[in-house]
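sry for the spam today, last one i promise. struct tokens for design, 322 residues
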């Protein structure tokens, strides 16, 4: 699950999460804008705006490995054009969050060739640092709460973009898409709802990765993987869910950009290290004992029809957006 950008602050009306506003505003390249909370972007799911306040809708969202008593929603804002290219974005929120709920803000930038970077979280740990300066950025909010809880309430979201010399910038450039061999499990859960709001169908075709950094909007193939089984069969499928086991484990990224488990080798899922080497005491990020080394979940159609698998197995995965 996302880090707790806002947590246990139900009594706080105005909440600021920018870590260094004064420094950023001093920069001549600083640019600020307000997210339009009235916008209902087609990529959003399970959020509503009532009386100028954004809150979770009533639909249940069952990520493949998250707590099944939670529901979540995503609000995606239209891309924002910057007057000057920038590589760093901070967020300031006016809102409140119940103690049992979470709210995260992510940012991505559009590269010169038109492709989008991965989503990068901005929060108390620091602003979102993109792999390169971009002229267009997009912001999303992810709201999570147990079923029956009011969940997060957002009244305003302010953004600030600037350029920094952060050592992470520029380290994501890769000459070709990265490929790793990871353990694949079958997701199933037909009739359930994925993290991006997709209702799972019988023999569906999509995958889940244990991080929201590469979560495609419902119906989109923006972030996709090429999965190949040892029998020679391959399928290209979109990333529509988060899991297995973890939800902040972008193991395909180098350590500088990996959200969690930065001491693990690039390409090694935390669940695999926990299962095989008792890493993290053999537990996932939620404290559950890891029962298999899975680094990707496959929807039934991808598992049975696309790859011809009869059981969980190691597969080769190419992360095409990298």
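last one done:
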């Amino acid at each position: 699950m996302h880090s707790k950008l806002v947590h246990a602050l139900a009594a706080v009306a105005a909440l600021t999460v920018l870590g260094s506003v004064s420094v950023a505003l001093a920069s001549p390249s600083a640019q600020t804008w307000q997210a339009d909370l009235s916008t209902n972007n087609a990529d959003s799911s399970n959020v509503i705006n009532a009386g100028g306040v954004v809150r979770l809708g009533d639909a249940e969202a069952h990520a493949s490995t998250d707590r099944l008593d939670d529901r979540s929603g995503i609000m995606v804002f239209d891309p924002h054009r910057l007057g000057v290219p920038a590589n760093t974005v901070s967020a300031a929120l006016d809102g409140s969050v119940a103690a049992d709920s979470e709210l995260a803000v992510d940012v991505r930038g559009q590269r010169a060739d038109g492709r989008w970077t991965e989503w990068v979280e901005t929060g108390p740990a620091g602003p979102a640092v993109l792999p390169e300066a971009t002229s267009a950025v997009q912001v999303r909010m992810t709201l999570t709460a147990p079923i029956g809880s009011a969940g997060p309430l957002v009244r305003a979201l302010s953004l600030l973009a600037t350029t920094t010399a952060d050592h992470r910038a520029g380290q994501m450039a890769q000459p070709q898409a990265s490929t790793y061999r990871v353990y694949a499990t079958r997701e199933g859960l037909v009739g359930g709802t994925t993290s991006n709001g997709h209702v799972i169908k019988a023999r569906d075709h999509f995958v889940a990765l244990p991080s929201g950094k590469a979560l495609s909007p419902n119906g989109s193939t923006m972030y996709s993987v090429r999965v190949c089984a040892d029998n020679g069969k391959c399928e290209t499928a979109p990333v529509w869910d988060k899991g297995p086991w973890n939800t902040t484990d972008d193991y395909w990224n180098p350590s500088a950009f990996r959200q969690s488990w930065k001491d693990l080798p690039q390409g090694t899922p935390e669940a695999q290290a926990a299962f095989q080497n008792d890493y993290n005491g053999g537990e996932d990020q939620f404290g559950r004992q890891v029962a298999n080394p899975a680094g990707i979940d496959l929807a039934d159609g991808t598992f049975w029809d696309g790859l011809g698998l009869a059981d969980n197995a190691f597969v080769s995965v190419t992360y095409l957006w990298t």
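The domain at 178-319 is CATH 2.40.40.10 (Barwin-like endoglucanases). ok im logging off now
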